[in-house]
Design a protein that fits this description.
Helix content is 39%, strand content 16%. The protein has 231 residues and is α/β, with parallel strands linked by helices. It has an eight-stranded parallel sheet. α1 runs parallel beside α8 and α7 runs parallel beside α8. The structure holds pyridoxal-5'-phosphate (PLP).
């Protein structure tokens, strides 16, 4: 991990270059460091390099690391699949949730958000490629889900998120992501608080920025290959 700073610089340079190519302000693209499977020490090192936003997929793993990193002012994003029985701990310990795809979990997150905390920022995950194995609302059900989230007092819907099927060709990546950007543009007049397009991972960061991403979620290219433990 001694070269984290180098990797961070490289990813930031890619963000910068992609934004300039797209005629966009590089500062309009935020970097979420996806730290799943990484030890707390890696997050601490990334924090020391100036990184403040971290994304986690697995609740228990995230809570363990948060415990060890209480002294740092980290903005925590939950980006993994949501189960109803885990919403309380998420509402209590995260600033953002990117993977909301049904009213039931949104309602629970709102109800369980502790009093005195700002509303929980959420993105609605859209299953762009209609993959049976993936979470996310189907595109045709997006509008009615958004409508149903509006009355919930302790969440703030900030945008849309997607994890498209893997494609290697940048042109195809861009095409796959464009519908999410189009959906956000279509919904913004109705919901002016929508300002976030969460898309782009290590393999499609450039295509995502070309398509309008405002937040890219990068794991592998920041931390190296993931460490999965058998147990
Ligand atoms: C793991 C993960 C990422 C990061 O993927 P990399 O290819 O390692 O950059 C981004 N978003 C979500 C939802 C993830 O689960």
């Amino acid at each position: 991990m001694t070269n984290f700073r180098e990797r961070l610089n490289r990813v930031q340079a890619r963000i910068h270059a992609a934004a300039e190519r797209a005629g966009r302000d590089p500062a309009a693209v935020q970097l979420l460091a996806v730290s799943k499977t990484r030890p707390a020490a890696d997050i601490r090192e990334a924090f020391a390099c100036g990184q403040r936003r971290f994304g986690e997929n697995y609740l228990q793993e995230a809570l363990d690391k948060q415990q060890q990193l209480q002294d740092l002012t980290i903005e925590w994003h939950f980006i993994g699949p949501l189960q109803s029985n885990k919403t309380r701990a998420i509402a209590e310990n995260f600033d953002w949730v990117h993977s909301v795809d049904r009213l039931k979990v949104a309602r629970r997150l709102s109800e369980q958000r502790p009093a005195g905390r700002p509303p929980l920022n959420i993105c609605v995950q859209v299953n762009l490629d209609r993959e049976a194995s993936k979470s996310g609302v189907l595109p045709e059900a997006l509008d009615s889900l958004l409508e149903s989230l509006q009355p919930l007092p302790h969440i703030q819907v900030r945008g849309l998120m997607a994890i498209p099927a893997v494609r290697s060709d940048p042109q195809q990546q861009r095409q796959a992501l464009q519908p999410l950007a189009d959906a956000l543009a279509r919904l913004q007049p109705r919901y002016p608080q929508l300002d976030t397009l969460s898309m782009g991972m290590s393999g499609d960061l450039e295509a995502a920025i070309a398509a309008g991403a405002t937040l890219v979620r990068i794991g592998t290219d920041l931390f190296g290959p993931r460490i999965y433990q058998e147990n």
